[in-house]
Structures are given as structure tokens and as C-alpha cells.
Amino acid sequence: MRDTLLPAVPGPQVADDTLVLRVLDLALRIGEVQLATGAGAAVAHDTMLSIARTYGLPTCDVDIAFSTITMCCHRGNEAGPVTTMRNVRYRTQDYTRLADVDAIISEIVDREEPLSVEEAFTRLGTAVDGPHPYPRFVAGLARSLFAGAVAFLIGGGLLVAVLAALATGVIWTAARWLRKHGVPMFFQQMVGAAVVTLSATTLAWTGTLEDSPAFVIAAGIVVLLSGLSLVGLVQDAISGFPLTAAGRAVEVVLASAGLLVGVVVSIKLVATVLGTDAGAYAAVVPQSPAPSLHPISLLAAAAAGMLFALSAYAPWRSLPLAALAGAVAWAGYGLLGILGAGEVVAAALAAAALGLVAMVLPRSLGTPPLVLVIAGITPLLPGLTMYRGFSQLAYGGVAVGAVTILLALTFGLALAAGVSVGEQIGWPLQRLLRRVLPGETAEDRERDARRGRPRVF
Fold it and tell me: Which among 417, 313, 402, 349 has a CA at the least distance from the CA of 99?
């Protein structure tokens, strides 16, 4: 029994000030971690309200505006409301912390006897301040190998994959240094794009790189795009958080503008320093190859999904599922392409299938759906199309370049919208499966009601 909790009624009984402040602070801190590690505003909103209800505060409001979270507890006519706020001061891809916080939420919301507030604070502090499950250099190496796998998927050979991995290692090191010194994301993206463009174009000019440098540059662009919250942007807009979606949109646009500046300036610099012959190498952008269902391609897609999850500090137990997600998403994309669907439609439907699978997977696996979805769709990001648009802008084709970049953005938005469609279908399907399959109890239904609607983002 929850003897220490207040009854869940908004009547004249006044909640204790200390309990209210402690519960609000706990809910705000958990919501902050969720937003900072990539979860959508709807997930954080529902989680915070569920925690407040569990601890006996049923009449609360939550307002999320990108980097600001405000929570208010109403206490009837006997006492004034209590309002508090926190800022989300950082953004990171750290799926171990996200999984640990999700486990804490389960022990608060899904149990008849929840964790005490003090124990929840202790567990949360351990999850946030604890060490990563593996050293930082492992995450950096995984991100580099992820770029190599992507380079292979978009049509590059073994040498292209190796060079993309080496360039990404330099980008990752430079980004860490810039981030540590407080350099804004715009300049981090610009430096990363410049590093990969200058190195690939110079190697092509010297003859070391026989293939087009576009494959190496496109793989680097995918790595740099992978840290953006494009899916969260679309999901927040759809789920009724326009301010948060607008904030994410500004973040994505500025980061993409940093890529544009880095690539275009680098192409101009190479042409000026090494001559127009060197600059001509950057203008050679092959067409995006048709996605292949060859076993090697599926293996590369699985490796890309697993390596991306590893680079984002995903828990060890989630890595096989991330590899499976990468292979499934690529297989769906390739199959739909063979059947005649356009690139954008194929990407959207593949992402929808992945979102649907992530929704119906049992929570007992201990892996947040977000980890699987991001690991699966990241190899599908349109790095080669994005670079083609940047190159066209660099050579004066403003109208053509703008259309190509718009196509790349449409491709990315299709991935995000597809995930949302999969979530919308998966939610009622998950409820239907739980009702049809034997073993569901009244306690299970009560727990689901306390938790609220399941979401990917």
C-alpha cells in the first residue's frame, strides 16, 4: 500500500510543501535527462505527469519549450500552486543514461509500491553521473567504423570506406575539442565538413583516391547529420509541441547551414590553392546507387546500425537489436526500391515499418524503442544527395543546388514522418496484441494506464 503517499484527489486536502517540491524536482530532472538524450517532448511530458500522479500529485501541468521545462502543481483552494522550472543545458547521444532513466521510471510508475522519492533521487544521480559502459575511445572508434560502413552502402569501395573512417576519426576528435571549449554547433559542423571535404578532394587530386571524393564526403555528412534531432522535430510537431519543434527546427537548420558553409568554402579553397583541376574533382558526384539486397550490403547495414548504437553509448544488450534494426530498415528500403517505389516513399515506408516493430517489441527487452529506430534509419540519411546540392551551389548552380538540397531535406523528413506513422499504427496494435495474448492481468492494465500511451519519441 502507498501509505506514505497523498490520496490522488484534487479536493481540499493540501499537499505537503516538502513532498510537492521533492516530487516536482524529481520529475523535472527525469524529464531533463530524457530531452537531453534525444527523447521527444511528448515522452518527457507524459513521464513527468505519470511520476507526479504516482506520488500523489494528480493535478499538475507541464510546459516544454525546447530548452525550458516548467511544471506546476495545483493544490485546490486551500493553498497556492507550486511552480518550478529547469533548463535543458546540454544535448547528447547517450543511450545508456536514457535506458537507465527508463528503468527508474518503470520502478516508479509500473510498480504497486513505487521507489521512495529519496531512493529515486539516488538512482537518478548514479545514472547521470556514473561512468559510461565502455571507454570513450571505443565510442569514437565505433563512429569512425560507422562512417566506413555508410561509405560502402552508398557505393564506395574498400579504400573509400577506410578513408571515410579515418576522416571521421579526425572530425570526432575536433568536435570533442570544440565542444569542450564551448564552440557553438554551427562552427562544429562547419569544421567537420571542411575537414572531410578538404582531405577527400586533396586525396583525389593526388591520385590516392581513385573513386570520386563524393563518397567519402557523403559518409562524413551522414555522420554529422546523425547527431541532429530531425525525427524528434517532426514528432514534436505532430504530437502538439510546436514551440519545441520550432526550436529543434532552428537547431537543425543552423547545423545544416554549417555543413553547407564548410563544404562550399572548402571546394572554393581547394580550387584556389591547388588549381581548377583539383576543384573539378569535387564536382564529380555519382548518382545514388540503387539499394542492394546483397548479403554483403545487408551485413554492412547491420554493422552500421550496431556501430552507431555503440558510438552513442547504447547498452551492450541493445547492440544485437540495433544491428537487426539496421538490416531490416535497409532491406525494406531496398525491397521497396526494387518494387518501383521512389527513394522518398521507400525511405518513409521502411522507417514506418521500423517504428511499428519498435512499438510492438516487449519492454522486457530493456531497450528503449528510440535506440532501435535511430540506429535503423541513420544509415538511410541522404548524405550523397546533400553533398550533390552543396557541390552544385559551389559551382554556381544556385537554383539546381537549392532543389537538390530540398530533395535531401524531404528525404530526411520522410524518414521522420515514417517513424511517426509506424508509432501511430503500433500503439493500437500493441494494445490489441496484449488483449489477445494470454496472461494479461488487471494489474497489467492498471500499470499501462499509469504509464500512459507508449511512444517511440
Answer: 313
Instruction: Please give the Cα distance from 447 to 450 (Å, whole number).
Output: 5
Q: Would you give the distance in Å from CA 264 to the centre of its chain?
A: 27
Mind listing the pLDDT tens digit for each residue in 75-111? 777 777 888 999 888 777 888 888 888 888 888 887 7
Q: What are the pLDDT digits (tens) for 372-394? A: 888 888 888 888 888 888 888 87
Kindly report the pTM of this predicted structure. 0.85
Model pLDDT for residues 303-321, shown as the tens digit of each residue? 999 999 998 888 888 899 8
Nearest to 381 by CA among 223, 233, 248, 229: 223
